[in-house]
Design a protein that fits this description.
Helix content: over 70%
Radius of gyration: 23 Å
Keywords: G-protein coupled receptor, Membrane, Receptor, Transducer, Transmembrane, Transmembrane helix
Organism: Adineta ricciae
Order of helices and strands: HHHHHHHEEHHHHHH
Number of domains: 1
Structural class: mainly alpha
CATH architecture: Up-down Bundle
Transmembrane segments: 12-36, 56-80, 92-113, 133-157, 177-198, 219-239
Domain G-protein coupled receptors family 1 profile: 29-282
CATH topology: Rhopdopsin 7-helix transmembrane proteins
Number of strands: 2
CATH superfamily: Rhodopsin 7-helix transmembrane proteins
Number of helices: 13
Shape: globular
Distance between the termini: 75 Å
Protein name: G-protein coupled receptors family 1 profile domain-containing protein
Strand order of the largest sheet: 1-2
Strand content: under 5%
Largest sheet: 2 strands, antiparallel
CATH class: Mainly Alpha
């Protein structure tokens, strides 16, 4: 059996290496989503509005929540949370942005189900004005629901390490028995599974083929793949949460505590996969997304090439004038 020191070292490296990779690839992917789905050929679709919103909150989550976890949990630099204001800001923004992004995925699943429905009243929910209303409600809800995690945030000495965490019996009970199991696990899993399954049923129903041809089938397909990846990634996090809740008051050895820390770090990093993979799912499932991405890359090359030509011409002009 590995020693506690070895387990802690493994936990740190599993936070540093995958964490940095997720930040780099995630920020690039979110930026590409913003550039692709803000183009005219995409932005008139209600699902594109949800994707744009999700990408913005993905960037915030990766830049603040995951980066802080890499610095503190990976490099072991706890002084980042030595100020109460920074600690409060980090906890509030982390919860707000991560849940706004997660429920944007639920809205994407809902939009996919509505757009493939044979009922005209349900398809009305794919209009842009209704999509923007749902986006606004999602943002406002999580702005308010995240307030307790800012108010009850404290800097505590836990296992000889200063940690930024919530404190208080009321908020801990609320988190353990309602907030995490209901709002973070059950509701998103139920929404994604329900709307994903019935979207697939709508797509494969023979009588619906005429209607489905009128919408972007590639968009529906890539959203279904995204739903499947999100649901699968929830399983380790859900199991770890159940285990941590059940064993919270157990007496544990130093080796057991180190092993728990390793498991927690792995599941947390795995959970951030949800904020990273969307662009790569879209580009693998949609010809339109691939085409637009190639156009963006070609335009960037043209701009860089034009800058080099301009700089060469400027140098020639300076030589001729001298």
């Amino acid at each position: 059996m590995l020693s506690p020191e070895t387990l802690i070292s493994i936990s740190q490296w599993l936070t540093i290496l995958p964490g940095i990779a997720l930040i780099v690839f995630g920020l690039f992917g979110a930026l590409m989503n913003l550039m692709i789905f803000s183009r005219q050929r995409f932005r008139k679709a209600s699902s594109s509005q949800y994707i744009l919103t999700q990408s913005i909150f993905d960037m915030i989550t990766l830049s603040i929540a995951l980066l802080a976890q890499v610095i503190v949990g990976g490099f072991g630099y706890p002084y980042l949370f030595s100020l109460q204001s920074i600690c409060t800001f980090r906890n509030y923004v982390t919860l707000f942005s991560s849940q706004a992004a997660l429920y944007s995925k639920c809205l994407i699943a809902f939009d996919t189900w509505a757009s493939t429905s044979r009922h005209a009243r349900i398809r009305q929910w794919t209009k842009l004005n209704r999509a923007r209303f749902l986006i606004l409600m999602n943002i406002l809800f999580w702005m308010l629901a995240s307030i307790p995690y800012g108010v009850f945030t404290k800097i505590l000495l836990i296992r000889n390490v200063w940690q930024c965490t919530i404190a208080g019996p009321g908020i801990l009970t609320y988190q353990a028995y309602f907030f995490v199991p209901c709002l973070i696990l059950f509701m998103p899993l139920f929404s994604l599974s329900f709307f994903g399954y019935f979207s697939y049923v709508n797509m494969t129903r023979p009588t619906a083929l005429a209607h489905i041809r009128q919408i972007n089938r590639q968009l529906v397909r890539m959203v279904l793949v995204q739903i499947a990846v999100t649901v699968i990634s929830f399983v380790p996090y859900g199991l770890q949460f159940i285990y941590s809740t059940v064993t919270a008051n157990w007496q544990k050895s130093s080796q057991w505590i180190a092993l728990d820390s390793l498991i927690v770090q792995m599941t947390r990093i795995g959970f951030f996969v949800n904020n990273t993979v969307e662009f790569y799912i879209y580009i693998s499932q949609s010809n339109d997304v691939r085409f637009t991405f190639k156009r963006i890359m070609m335009n960037l090359k043209v701009i860089r090439g034009g800058n080099r030509v301009f700089s060469i011409d400027a140098r020639i002009h300076n030589i001729n004038t001298t």
